[in-house]
């Protein structure tokens, strides 16, 4: 049994290498650049943890982990173009450092490279893994499309937001665990519980992310809070606030969304507090965590084996940065 | 044995359907739109022809053909963004009709869908097919990157241009044939000759395409010739002209490249004719066709079985549109 940190090191040992040939450098240099700017490598390690929950780690889990990390980077490179994000992990995004056309192709070759790693899996479970991988890949694209659609809509319901967030971020966490479990020889029932564990952890993580962006401690959070508020981003907090605010608060909130006032963040936060959005967010996060742990509990292996997953969940949930 | 036209009909019978679920419509409606604006379906039919050169067509060849056509459409959708092309097959491109962000995701889901079809192949040759498919997919991306790079360079050599064109267009034609042949149970040697046949036909086709854009009959060609010349596109013709022109012609040509004169096309064509570029292009096309047919000849099956491939090559090479 290995800890999350041990598995990160173990994964990086294989992953910190060149993933592409040298030529054409105009395509592959930007690809290597992005793969080398770091990242927490959570998803590939989830593949390894999913495997080790049931069995010793098989070589195939490393092939899977490589594929999942390449897929994740493919989606980041393309998302950054769409969101016009200039920074990722504190470094220039591919389309900013190079150009959008190169970034499109960089994402494309990373996706193909992901499939090359999947192809190395020798396990008889390959077809099951590919089915889940492909479904998840399409869901991640759907989530990104919905995120863009919602940013243009006046009103987004909580159900719509949860659906979008689930597709955009949770399903890949969930599928990473389940694909690892498939390699570990897990039963269908255990696989499904592990998937639901990952999915709910993912949603809880997003609630926390939205919470920290509004109420986080600047020193611990690493950046000034209020970014989402400034951008009128539809978050768990804003969507819930618009649902529970009284008519006066709702009007004030809607007026604030239409301006770029200097005290916008401060005023929106004041309304959030009046509506007890901070407490609600804490409770909402706890609700998803509870669901996640119920599914983990239902997995038929000894408690000892579940420890690294609990450790990971705690690591993700107590993060202040 | 089937003719090219029969196989187009047979392929379209299965392909003319919805490829994606209904929701989210903002992603999948644009995807279906693009898959429904037509196309000659040459690549998927090459898969079927490659199979039938050696054996009765296996169901797997249809899965492969679907994958190849989806891959081709993925690359077109992304290329159209990069080239800022407003029309494809006479219809609005995805990024023009919708927007670039949607077009990025439309390409992405088409590529994933291509892999879903590959996964349906039951043949024991699947891993060989996937290896060739993945290599080809990366080469096509490399070709597009080189095409963009070359458009910004002052000078491109003939070897560089042939390398770029081979990656951008020929390898997919070649691989479609070879992957079909693998399903048909062809030997490695036969596979390689068929690949080279496809590759050389692809280059010959590009020579012809460049020729027709300069010297084609407007009525037969379906559009006013000279588009490449107006855009200073580095083509077989321009690259060769710059190689063989005398100093006076070369200077005149270089001056013409720097202006947008009304009589630019006419003047460039006059220099092309002085340099006998039209004759050279015909000979160059014939050279690649000869190579292609030598490889076809070397394939160890009866002449009778090769007829549909010869028919296809003639169809591609006598096209005036």
Structure characterization notes:
- Two copies of one chain form a homodimer.
- Chain A has 16 helices and two strands.
- Chain A is globular, with a radius of gyration of 20 Å.
- Chain A has helices spanning 4-15, 25-35, 42-52, 59-83, 94-97, 100-118, 126-151, 158-183, 188-215, 218-221, 227-230, 236-244, 247-257, 264-274, 277-297, 303-317; strands spanning 87-88, 91-92.
- The longest helix of chain A is centred in the middle third of the chain and has 28 residues, at 188-215.
- In chain A, helix 2 (25-35) crosses helix 6.
- Chain A has a two-stranded antiparallel sheet with strand order 1-2.
- Chain A has 321 residues and is an all-alpha fold.
- The A-B interface holds A 24, 26-27, 78, 81-82, 100-102, 104-105, 107-109, 111-113, 115-116, 119, 127, 130-131, 134, 137-138, 141-142, 144-146, 148-149 and B 24, 26-27, 78, 81-82, 100-102, 104-105, 107-109, 111-113, 115-116, 119, 127, 130-131, 134, 137-138, 141-142, 144-146, 148-149.
Radius of gyration of chain A: 20 Å
Secondary-structure-based class of chain A equals: mainly alpha
Helix content of chain A: over 70%
Greatest interface by residues involved: A-B, 33 and 33 residues
Number of strands of chain A: 2
Describe this protein with a few key phrases:
homodimer; mainly alpha; 16 helices
Question: How is this structure best summarized?
Answer:
Chain A is mostly helical and 321 residues long. Chain A has helices at residues 4-15, 25-35, 42-52, 59-83, 94-97, 100-118, 126-151, 158-183, 188-215, 218-221, 227-230, 236-244, 247-257, 264-274, 277-297, 303-317, and strands spanning 87-88, 91-92. Chain A binds chain B through residues 24, 26-27, 78, 81-82, 100-102, 104-105, 107-109, 111-113, 115-116, 119, 127, 130-131, 134, 137-138, 141-142, 144-146, 148-149, and chain B through 24, 26-27, 78, 81-82, 100-102, 104-105, 107-109, 111-113, 115-116, 119, 127, 130-131, 134, 137-138, 141-142, 144-146, 148-149.
